[in-house]
Amino acid sequence: MSLTMMSRKSKFKYFEPTAVDRISECPDSVLVHILSRLEETEDAVRTQVLSKRWRFLWTFLPSLLFRYNAYDDYGGEGEGEDFRVARNTEFVTFVEKTLFSSDCKLKKFGVEFEYYPRFTSNVDLWTRFAAGKGVEELSIQLWPDDTEYELPQLLYDNSWFKELRFSHCRVIPGGNVAWYSLKKLSIGHVKFSNDVIERILAGSPVLEILELHNFEGFSRLSVTNSCVKKLILSEFLNIWDDSGLEISAPYLLSLEMSGRLGKNCRLTNVSSLVDAVFNCDFMCYADDRANDYERIQNIVVVFLASLLHVKNLTLGTWAIQVLSIMEAKGLSSPLLNCKCLTLDMEIDKYVLPGIANVLKSTPNVETLIMTWSLYGWRLYGIESMVLLNYNEEQYWTSQKWTYKCLTLHLKNVTISSRLMNLMMYHRDSNFFSFIQFLLRNARVLQKMVISTPSDDRLKKYFEAAKKLLSFPRSSPDAAVIFC
Q1: How far apart are the first and last CA of the chain?
Q2: What is the spatial distance between Cα 238 and Cα 261, in angstroms, rounded to a whole number?
Q3: Which alpha helices (H) appear in 102-230, and where do they start and end?
Q4: In sequence order, what are the residues at sequence separation of 6 or more whose Cβ sits closer than 8 angstroms to the Cβ of residue 229?
Q5: What's this model's pTM, rounded to 2 decimal places?
Q6: What is the CB neighbour count within 10 angstroms for residue 446?
Q7: Which residues, in sequence order, are bridge partners of residue 138?
Q8: According to the per-residue pLDDT averaged within each range, which of 24-28, 318-322, 357-361 is highest?
Q9: pLDDT for 15
């Protein structure tokens, strides 16, 4: 095709600019870095069709990450398990071809797909490949159809690993664990004994972060390694075990607990904790809810008493509701020394007294953060009638208690956009009443920051902003900021 085109109505010539491929002129190291920024290896492999220049570049990638969900290609009626097995077989074939074409020392290898027992030898091959390549970060995320994959023994004796992530895998080390370089370990959907978790911790001398999700089988977690600074626990599945889980971690700095954590959990030694997230709940006996509440209340009180020294504390819906019932009964939470308090909840009549209880029990709070997450079990049916015996619309205006944190210390308030969205969607007067209460009583408040979205809800935010800005403030320096 000629680069010169003649107009039929004039003699002017229009020149089509010659395309210049600036990217392909970059050095190999730059192009490989660009490819490594792609989320999935399959996208990087596809670039080989661009030109001869790109044909083998992907083989030098230091990270190979494979993810496939057959349901994304599910065509509907008539395409069941056979379809999924066939598509996952294609995925397995692609992974193996890619691995054997790799021509670089791998730093990271990860695979995520629907696992069937027929793929055991394939996954075994991948793990041997990763171990032989000296992979530092290994992720095996499987969704088993029935039988879970058992990690091969060679993985337990590897000093290259710095980060491991397993899901739906059987963790059964035949001997001692030797993860001498491991700094982060995340295991989900797993069942193992006290002995196994002890061997894992003993064989990971420089471990810094431990994450356990959807786990069961053990009742004791003793973290005596001074390197472990962060522990994340969610969904402890020992729901019928009355003994619950006992945690001892004297050097731990950060603890996050979320989801349903069995029937009980005890912190016996967490003296170094700085950050704590208590956004979980414990099983209730459906056939004896009234009497079971005393057990639940005791769990919360004992748990909070273990966190007296924590500087940054997050409380979720379940704990705040328990504190609401306690407030209605005239019972206070243990005094907490936190400087930063995060309340992760929806502001409704079931949590208002709990918020008041928390403010009374945290006299030194300087920063208050309010967020909302999808998670949040409720205590409907467990003495909830106690909470219905007050006028929620006048709750904050009727408060006569002097809150020390509001009088002397609270300087910053932050409200997340997700919570703001929820409150505006429901046109919640409880939310605005609480904000008005804060502005009226926080005498040293410096700023209240409210996150706003950049979409078609801005008109509603503008109306909310005018309302919030009209509230009187006791602090002459208080600024309400929408960002």
Answers
A1: 53
A2: 8
A3: 120-132, 194-202
A4: 208, 209, 251, 252, 253, 254
A5: 0.85
A6: 14
A7: 109, 164
A8: 357-361
A9: 42
DSSP string, 14-63: EEPPPP--TGGGS-HHHHHHHHHTSSSHHHHHHGGGS-GGGTTGGGG-SE
- Those residues with Cβ within 8 angstroms of residue 49's Cβ, 6 or more apart along the chain or in another chain: none
Task: Please give the Cα distance from 329 to 7 (Å, whole number).
Answer: 88
Q: Give the pLDDT band (50/70/90) at residue 424.
A: low
DSSP strand pairing (137-144 vs 163-167) = parallel
Of the candidates 158, 161, 141, 138, the one whose C-alpha atom is nearest the C-alpha of residue 149 is 141
**Beta strand residue intervals within 312-444, DSSP E:** 312-316, 340-344, 367-371, 412-415
Digit-coded pLDDT (tens) for 365-375:
999 999 987 65
Q: How many whole angstroms separate alpha carbon 293 and alpha carbon 296?
A: 5
pLDDT of residue 93 exceeding 50, the answer is: yes
Residue 410 has pLDDT above 90, yes or no: yes
Cβ atoms within 10 Å, residue 445? 24
Q: What is the 3-state secondary structure (H, E, C) of 282-330?
A: CCCCHHHHHHHHHHHHHHHHHHHHCCCCCCEEEEEHHHHHHHHHHHHCC
Q: What gap in Å lies between CA 349 and CA 407, rounded to an integer?
A: 25
d(CA 382, CA 240): 19
Contact 275, 254 (CB under 8 A): yes
Count helices and strands in the chain by DSSP H and E runs: 12, 22
Q: Is the pLDDT of residue 13 over 50?
A: no
Q: Name the phi and psi angles at 212, rounded to 5.
A: -130, 120
Identify the three-state secondary structure at position 8.
Answer: coil
Kindly tell me if the per-residue pLDDT of 270 is higher than 90.
Answer: yes
For residue 165, give the DSSP letter. Answer: E
Look up residue 414 and give its two tokens. Answer: 């932050």
Higher-confidence position of 457 and 236: 236
Q: CA-CA distance, 343 to 65, in Å (whole number)?
A: 36
Mean pLDDT across the stretch 198-219?
95
CB 248 within 8 A of CB 272: no
* Residue from 291, 296, 317 nearest 373 by CA: 317
Question: What value does the mean pLDDT take over residues 319-346?
Answer: 92
Cα(276)–Cα(257) distance, integer angstroms: 8
